[in-house]
Give the backbone structure.
Amino acid sequence: MNSQRKTAALVALCLALITTVSAEENLRVLPETIDGVKPSDMMNTYLRAQAAENFETWKQQYEQRKTPEQIAEYQKTIRAKFTEAIGEFPQRTPLNPQITGVVQRKGYCVEKVIFESQPKHYVSALLFMPDAKKHKQPYPGVLVPCGHSRNAKAYDTYQTMGALLAINGMAALVFDPIDQGERSQMPSQLPELWGTRAHTMIGVGSILLGRNTAWFEIWDGMRGIDYLQSRPEVDPNRIGCTGNSGGGTQTSYLMSLDDRIKAAAPSCYITNFYERILELGAQDAEQNIYGQLAFGMDHADYLMLRAPTPIMICAATKDFFDIRGTWQSFRYAKRLYSRLGFAERIDLLENDAPHNYNILQRQSVVRWMSRWLLGKDKPITEPPIELLTEEETTCSPSGLVMQLPGARSTYDLNRDFEKSLAECRRRLWANTERAELLNQVRKITGIRRLAQIPKPQVEQIAVIERPAYKIKKLILKPQNGLYLPALMFLPNKTPIKNITVYLHEQGKTADAGPDGPIEKLVKSGRLVLAVDIRGIGETQQKSQRYFASHFGSDGQDVYTAYLLARSYVGMRAEDILICARFGLDSAKEQTGNVDLIAVGHLGVPALHAAALEPDMFASVKLVRSLISFSNVIESGRS
């Protein structure tokens, strides 16, 4: 008898588990694919299509630049938009340079330098100086921003580039980017937090302030040029710039913005945005400038904004930066340089190799710099280089500049800027009409007025019966390529007292089980519409890799939208408004407004929707939501 009871209990437990699993499966709305696209790839596909449209527009605009006057006007316009998107740079302050040591090598010496790109924001660098007995002063100066190596300026490739430039009569400043080498911005988080992940973390808070990670890197580079020009041994009118990978990114930015750069050679970076998004997706924060695709700026523009300044693209056939995009950008730049009569000033090296800065590329870069900065066009042969040890490259006493007295990190600088903006906001809200302020919110987020948002197509998939209520499985289609799976909970006999739109960061099914929060609302007489707004639940991105555990699985999609000047907050707020209006239309006998409940990070778009269309909502309840944007910056973690 005991055995029979145990067996019966086990069977009952199995049936209960099967019932639970079945119920969860039954709440799925979307099919495995729609028009050949998995729901989890919906946003990626949607954004890629927009990127493709932007690239077509870019190509049409390019063909309008024929004469020197048209090209000059284009350069002025795009450069202004680029600068605005990056954010206004600070005032120049004293560099307060320190030379903390000198290492002698055959044919050159290496000075260990620390300077302040902003007050107490320290930059560690190695200055490779030619042998004054062999080369006449003043020398050309070449800035060498490093790529994403942990030890940055100490990495053998970057040391070798500095040495090769110096051996051939050019001074070279090789400096650590933020969160590499000696410049960890959060030393307590080492060794895990550095490089691309750290750059993306800095980007989170920087974007909220209207700038980005690139803002810090570009300014460090510009101040590096200031330092080169301050040295009496360097000719301030003969400045070059070259870097690989992340250093290629920095070189591309610097050469397009800083007129002091007279020759440049970005390596293993230039492709085009469409190919990059197609092959890799958006990358870490400094590679994404707000609205670039929307205002008509692609990788080719980095080359063309300073035309006819001499630029050589170094590329690799097997690079993850797609070589097809590299050649496309080069062709556009070559044609524009040719229109100006300077076809010889733009060139491309394609190295039959993977992502690299190897001897072939280094020799070609130094020959390019020699041609345009020294006036000597000759083959360059790289001799064996005696590298400095890591200890010999260290500029600061502890090997971390953040441990210098009074050092300020990017997080400190962002907090300082946020505090200055807080006072501006206080005055703005005190002295400006609320309607005008909300219009500014609309403009920044791109949220349209409700009357301007088309009503969605709605498809009913199935109906599930539960005791006392039923669940309609619906698909709301705001526009082509976008699908919002929804569950509409309707009480069977109780008159509908109100409408609730229910949003959960884990998806519409998170609180939809028997005896759950949604069931309690339905049994109180409410119509509840639980929805997966875009990128949530069934349409949550699952395949992207870029630091998903730290920044969310949809991080790359968010940055692609950022490049397109689209805000996820804005797009999701519009989804919420669409759903709220649909809920009202579905309960014609009910004349009240919508109660909005948002759990987790969906509180942010929910709050925007309610603030901009307050007449639609009776109440808003936010659960575990972000306290404020300021809090993100004040926390010192972004």
